[in-house]
Amino acid sequence: EPRSAWCCLAWTLVVVTMNSLVFFMNLLLMFVIFTIVLLPTIVVVYFGFQCHSRVLHSAARYCRSILDDNSSSALIILGFVIMSPLIVVAMAIYCSLARRLHLFMCFQPYSRAVYKGVKWRWYEEGGCARGWNTQIKAWV
Questions:
Q1: Where are the transmembrane segments (predicted)?
Q2: In this structure, is residue 133 part of a structural domain?
Q3: Which end of the chain is more exposed for a tag (fewer CB within 10 A), N or C?
Q4: Could you tell me if 108 and 18 are in contact, meaning their C-beta atoms sit under 8 angstroms apart?
Q5: How many domains, in total, are found in the chain?
């Protein structure tokens, strides 16, 4: 049966808050994984741009003695070339971790706030809590 207007508003705030927290947890996890996996690319491109004379041209000793414009350009190109496979690896790691942790099962439907007696999806389907059901998939 439908909830009253004030009760529906309160439950809507609860559902929106919970879904927002789950979204930001997913976003934080994705940021951490992508940062760790793409760290070699970030470092290589950073040093390439730092030592190139037309970009930053740092006065650091390694820029003057080891890296000239040609080697800085090579570092920049290498960084962008290795970025594509590392993005694929980072996305595969994130997707497998999200699937293993059932992160997408934590999102709650809006009908939870509108109707009385609707159980939490993670309780009903076995995700995002104790006693996970390994047969349920978060996506099709």
A1: 27-49, 74-95
A2: no
A3: C
A4: yes
A5: 1
How confident is the prediction along the chain (140 residues), in pLDDT tens digits per residue?
677 777 777 878 888 898 899 999 999 999 999 999 999 999 999 989 888 888 777 788 888 888 888 999 999 999 999 999 999 999 999 999 988 888 888 777 777 666 666 665 554 554 454 444 555 555 54
- 6 φ/ψ angles, rounded to the nearest 5 degrees: -70, -40
**Cβ neighbours for 35, distance < 8 A, ≥ 6 positions apart:** 42
Quick one: which of 34, 31, 66, 21 has its CA closest to 48?
Answer: 66
Q: Residue 68 domain-assigned?
A: yes
Is residue 128 a part of any domain in this protein? no
Q: Which domain holds residue 82?
A: 5-108
129 in a domain, yes or no? no
